């Protein structure tokens, strides 16, 4: 695992931090789609990477992240939108930081919640057809966040048209159902979650501690959609 993790860190450092996501192959976009271009923060692991262990951890990726394509006309519809959460008064930071465009891993760029299952929720103000969600947790050191679940809904109470678009809670420890997605090591790249054109106004992202401590951290969430 330590060798695989080191390979992942080297690959991340090579990719760098400009407007870039995907491989150097420059794949052709499918008809009607464009490559998702992300403005990435600086890669910055602090300290010695841990020998992370998890029964649900995905294998380390070899090489650059593959290109990801979204329909033409999609934009980040979450930017500067209102954020609420399971705790309106986080231990560190303010909720509006989660959609402010700052994805850096430095102090002052993340929001910290108490232990246990926590969530942040974004009001997109209108219903959009969603095709990708990108999230950044704390990424200044290699760690894995537990029970990451993303849901969409038509109402703020998550009663109408609720859809689970990502769930890596393999043992249902958060009580939101057993997920089939894999846990992953946080990096400056963030995590791209494909969404199959789900129509929704609200997006909610859960977590339940991490491999370094029991706290929950969020840095930025982007939602790519269109009307």
Polypeptide structure, described:
With 227 residues, this protein is mainly β. Helix content is 6%, strand content 31%. It contains 1 helix and 11 strands. The chain has one helix spanning 2-15, and strands spanning 33-35, 69-71, 75-76, 83-85, 111-113, 118-136, 149-153, 163-167, 191-207, 216-218, 220-226. The longest helix is centred in the first third of the chain and has 14 residues, at 2-15. The relative contact order is 0.24. Residues 1-25 have low confidence and may be disordered.
How do the helices and strands follow one another from N- to C-terminus? HEEEEEEEEEEE
Fraction of helical residues? under 10%
Mean pLDDT: 89
Q: Major beta sheet, specifics?
A: 7 strands, antiparallel
The CATH architecture can be named as Sandwich
What is the CATH topology assignment? Answer: Jelly Rolls
List the uncertain runs. 1-25
Write the layout of secondary structure elements.
Layout (H helix, E strand, L loop, with lengths): L1 H14 L17 E3 L33 E3 L3 E2 L6 E3 L25 E3 L4 E19 L12 E5 L9 E5 L23 E17 L8 E3 L1 E7 L1
Antiparallel strand pairs: 1-2, 3-11, 4-6, 5-10, 6-9, 6-11, 7-8, 7-9
Concise account of the structure shown:
The protein is mainly beta.
Give me some keywords for this one.
two-stranded antiparallel sheet, Jelly Rolls, 31% strand, 227 residues, mainly beta, 11 strands, seven-stranded antiparallel β-sheet
């Amino acid at each position: 695992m330590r060798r695989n993790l080191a390979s992942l860190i080297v690959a991340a450092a090579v990719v760098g931090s400009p407007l870039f996501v995907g491989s150097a192959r420059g794949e052709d976009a499918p008809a009607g789609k464009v490559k998702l271009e992300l403005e990435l923060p600086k890669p910055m692991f602090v300290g010695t990477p841990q020998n992370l262990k998890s029964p649900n951890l995905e294998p380390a990726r070899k090489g650059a992240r593959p290109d990801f394509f979204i329909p033409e006309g999609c934009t980040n519809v979450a930017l500067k939108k209102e954020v609420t959460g399971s705790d309106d008064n986080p231990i560190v930071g303010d909720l509006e930081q989660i959609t402010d465009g700052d994805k850096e891993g430095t102090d002052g760029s993340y929001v910290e919640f108490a232990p246990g299952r926590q969530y942040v929720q974004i009001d997109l103000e209108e219903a959009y057809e969603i095709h990708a969600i990108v999230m950044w947790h704390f990424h200044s050191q290699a760690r894995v966040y537990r029970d990451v679940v993303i849901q969409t809904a038509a109402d703020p109470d998550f009663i109408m048209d609720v859809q689970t678009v990502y769930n890596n809670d393999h043992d249902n420890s958060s009580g939101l159902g057993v997920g089939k997605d894999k846990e992953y090591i946080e990096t400056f790249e963030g995590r791209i979650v494909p969404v199959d054109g789900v129509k929704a106004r609200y997006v909610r992202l859960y977590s339940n501690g991490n491999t370094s401590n029991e706290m929950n951290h969020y840095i930025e969430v982007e939602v790519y959609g269109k009307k």
